[in-house]
TrEMBL record:
Origin: domain of life: Bacteria
Keyword DNA-binding recorded: yes
Gene Ontology molecular functions: DNA binding; DNA-binding transcription factor activity
Record protein name field: Transcriptional regulator, BadM/Rrf2 family
Lineage of source species: Bacteria, Bacillati, Bacillota, Clostridia, Eubacteriales
Record organism: Ruminococcus flavefaciens
A single GO cellular-component term on record: cytosol
Signal peptide start-end: none
InterPro entries: TR_Rrf2-type_CS, Tscrpt_reg_Rrf2, WH-like_DNA-bd_sf, WH_DNA-bd_sf
UniProtKB keywords: DNA-binding
SUPFAM superfamilies: Winged helix' DNA-binding domain
PANTHER family: HTH-TYPE TRANSCRIPTIONAL REGULATOR ISCR, WINGED HELIX-TURN-HELIX TRANSCRIPTIONAL REGULATOR, RRF2 FAMILY
Length: 143
């Protein structure tokens, strides 16, 4: 599994909004400048984050973007699912229940189920607040 630029940039955008959570709405230009990401690229990511309820938008003079929830409630898994779609390592695990005709006799299915569980458990265990705390304690998440 490879995370696209869209997924990584969405995470950086929401991380930036988490850092400035107390300031209210933040302009896309400010986020783009601080994160070194093209504003046009962020404009393509915004609808994905809006559609999944991770972002709140406001138009007008004091408009901009803010997190729709608290930084400790939004996980890396939430962001990546919003931008990448399913995190399943194989297509047969993308839907519940598994509709693969070979699922009952698939001798490798347990491998993919275990990998999928590890991926989702790990990504869902890291909140935006965890990234902030990690970066402020000398660690550095490279997103």
């Amino acid at each position: 599994m490879k995370i696209s630029t869209k997924g990584r940039y969405a995470l950086r955008m929401l991380y930036d909004l988490a850092l400035h959570h107390e300031e209210g709405y933040v302009s896309l230009k400010d986020i783009a400048d601080r994160q070194g990401i093209s504003k046009k690229y962020l404009e393509q990511i915004v609808p994905l984050l809006n559609k999944t309820g991770l972002l709140r938008t406001n138009r007008g003079n004091k408009g901009g973007y803010m997190l729709a929830g608290n930084p400790d409630e939004i996980t890396v898994g939430d962001v990546l699912r919003a931008t990448e779609g399913s995190l399943a390592p194989v297509t047969c695990l993308e839907f519940e229940p598994n509709e693969c005709a070979r699922a009952a006799e698939c001798s490798t299915l347990f491998i993919w189920e275990g990998l999928y569980k590890s991926i989702t458990d790990y990504l869902d265990s890291i909140s935006l607040n965890d990234i902030i705390n990690h970066s402020h304690n000398g660690g550095d998440y490279c997103i």
